[in-house]
Amino acid sequence: MQNAMQLFKFAAVGCVNTFIDWAVYFSILKLFPGESVIFYSVAKAFSYFCGIINSFLLNRSWTFKGASNENEAGRFIKFVVVNAVGLGINSTFIYIFLNANLNHFMALIFTTSITFVFNFTLNKMWVFRKGKIVAKTTGG
Hints:
By secondary structure, the protein is mainly alpha-helical. Helices cover about 80% and strands about 0% of the residues. Helix 1 packs antiparallel against helix 2. It starts with a helix and ends in a 13-residue tail after the last helix.
């Protein structure tokens, strides 16, 4: 039940993040019209970063609030690493999908879905993990 609730909360936070991400992305395109796939990729990277800020705050305080509070600096670094890799995945897939002439909106949907699965898995299993994983050893 806790896993399902965390997935629901992570998805809800993700919806807010996606709204922020897409609002910033489309605002950039509206304010600075460009026709280059590279321009779209850079705009997407910036808009994604805006969502990252919201993501850390909400996931830390709401989604995974029961996680251990030890080494918050380390947690933040892990969060940044996961999201930096997620940003790379996000920007790479928007580039790939747009170069494949996929509809812009569908490219955003697919890109966001791929990044969501990656981010939830690593945030749950690594960044906000409860306790430490201890390897079992057998006595000799």
